[in-house]
């Protein structure tokens, strides 16, 4: 039985066979269909389609039916079924929220209550409590924090890519480049990352306490530079909490999909 795992983002689809397929989530229906079909095909010359496809995809999405419900990206396929667009039978597919998949790849039976923060173009948050991931009726994490009011906007505005780049004040630089400057001693860059940790800590301390969280995991591309903001984050949390990066930034989502 052939299985393929897909990690669907707004720019690329990562495939468990090592391929990366470009996808423009703001593109036309035809462009999105082409990318999805390429991702499930197994690559050029592959003549045996997969019989099982496990998909990590951000929300809003109906994870039971496989229906796109996003307006901010993949809008051209809103209300359509992933499997139908990919050209394979619906029964081949199983879908998981991308942050849920990453969390599942980092906890095991018997793990303590755990929270996962993912920092990148957005802000993801999921909780593993009493042996299960907390999800809403559609299958997304049931305790989102990205949309919590903060200053003139929401929390995600401040701690995600756009917040870090905006506060540093040089839109020509990526977060990775700003992090490199911080590691090199740039005080302004270090302050931006420290502020990110401070604000995160202030905003999640109560929810961590409410759910009895003992471990806080850091994922997403920005968390590859976790040393720059984790100390400030930890200062706002009880000293008994563990704050650490996920085990494997490159494969955590696939590890979670493999157990779904």
Major sheet attributes: 5 strands, mixed
CATH evolutionary superfamily of the largest domain = ATPase, nucleotide binding domain
What's the level 1 CATH class of the largest domain? Alpha Beta
| Strand order across the largest sheet | 3-2-1-4-7
Number of helices: 9
The amount of helix comes to: 25-40%
Give the low-pLDDT segments.
Answer: none
Query: And the CATH topology of the largest domain?
Result: Nucleotidyltransferase, domain 5
Task: Write a structural description.
The protein is of the alpha/beta class. The protein has 2 domains: 3-88, ATPase, nucleotide binding domain (Nucleotidyltransferase, domain 5, 2-Layer Sandwich); 108-246, Nucleotidyltransferase, domain 5, CATH 3.30.420. Helix content is 32%, strand content 22%. A 5-stranded mixed beta sheet has the order 3-2-1-4-7, sandwiched between helices. Strand 11 (149-150) and strand 12 form a beta hairpin. The two termini are 16 Å apart. The model has no long low-confidence stretch (mean pLDDT 93).
What are the defining features of this structure?
9 helices; alpha/beta; 14 strands; Nucleotidyltransferase, domain 5; 2 domains; 260 residues
In short:
The chain is α/β, with parallel strands linked by helices and about 260 residues long.
What topology does this entry show?
Blueprint lengths: L2 E6 L3 E4 L4 E3 L6 H13 L10 E6 L3 E2 L4 E2 L13 H5 L6 E5 H7 L9 E6 L3 E7 L2 E2 L15 E2 L2 E2 H5 L1 H8 L6 H9 L3 H24 L4 E5 L10 H6 L6 E4 L6 H7 L2
Parallel strand pairs: 1-4, 4-7, 8-13, 13-14
Antiparallel strand pairs: 1-2, 2-3, 5-6, 8-9, 9-10, 11-12
Helix pairs in contact: 3-9, 6-7
